[in-house]
Amino acid sequence: MLLRFPIFPPYFPLQRYLRSTSSSYSQVPLGFGSSALSLWADQKSGGPIRCSVSQVHSYGTVDPERPPALKWSSLARRISAMENPSLGCAAVLERWEEEERRLHKWELCRVVKELRKFRRFKLALEVCDWMTAQGDRFMFTSSDMAIQLDLIAKAHGISRAEEHFSQLPDTLKDKRTYGALLNVYGRAKMKEKAEAIVEVMRNKGYLTEALIFNVMMTLYMNVGEHEQVSKIINEMKENNISFDIYSYNIWITNCATMGDAEEMERVVGLMSSDNGINANWTPYTTLATMYIRLGNFEKAQSCLKDAEIRVMGRDRTPFNYLIGLYGSIGKREEVYRIWNWYKSSFPRILNVGYQCMLSSLIRLGDVDGAEMIYEEWLSMTSSYDPRICNILLGLYAREGLASKAKNALDKFLEKGGKPRPIMWETLAEGYIKEEQISEALSYMREAVSYEGVNNWRPKPKNIENLLALCKGQNDISSINMLMDMLRMRGCHEKEEYKSLISAYCQGN
Question: Domain range holding 345?
Fold first, then answer.
């Protein structure tokens, strides 16, 4: 979606390091502390240039007696919903073994993967620590070590991950664990440390696959050093490193970010002629985004058609981007066509799907359609995302339809939705536009009084407009109330508010 999503791709996890198809993987019993078990996990992708290549997850050596009728999902749910988190995962695992049966490594690794999927990194790490505490019961590979290195960084920070890596025996410091540490640095945009790790890997002969180069290209893009991406591309060519789909996607994205449409078309052509690449939809949506920025909607639509024929599997993501991009080029009928295709492909639409559809219809000026989608979302969902409600509130506020905004918010609250400060502020914005001071102050107070979001502050423009409205009506008491609200949120200490407060003080 052109206006809502960044052009930069996500971090590309080094999941190829997790494969255990070779007997050369280091296997050792763990006996060097509870933080030594390693189960590195790939990061969930996100963002517009995301490669929907099938991902194979492996967790090292699997017990030879693989259990029938696996119940790992029940165990994962029990861990996620444990009543007393202070007892930790150890209590749940021990109770499981007492009541059910002895756990196998394969099951535990699958539980770790599931916890990571829902970003429960600390719980996943606790499962790893429990496995470590079992002494020689489990055998682990360097892939396992890489997984936990990633988990430690996410749960406890980079310094702990570095300490963990330094304590690994040399037999487990291979391209997998080095690669995991590199990915940690890459996500944190720690360029110097990432470059140092790459140099070590180069000296050890580990730079034999595209994955390391992909991580570095993404890092350079994210820190704005786009010329470095070209240098890495050249290094890959000089060393006969085969490009994978991630490599091409990053390369294409870098061209788009630099505004080089001609080079981007050339790279797409190279990718299409590469027999080793089965291109997915993402390069074509990137190309479409570039054409939209250049105002060439005809070429953009052609690229979207190319993207459509590459949509397959059970990935919802391409539908979200197709809806957003068709909306950006004003193709209302295409937006509805993709939406109907989307709904026929999945038993239910997730919140992000409704968010994309609602945003696109509002961009197209289809208010009736947007209201219909909002009502459908309210009737279908059990997870009331305040961001979706706020999209409709924003439309009403901009149009000066405060009463309609209030009705939409009331329905959201009646369904059990939990409002956020920005929703109250959006409603206040509508009343400012209608020049209703008391209502605007009332909802601004609701926003300011919210205790769940400490870093929220009202938009300076809304404060400026409300102050101007109060001054125009010579409503000094309302100005004083507004100043009290700003002090409650610590706004008087922020530069962007100081000029507003100063102007008020000088005028009084």
Answer: 296-383
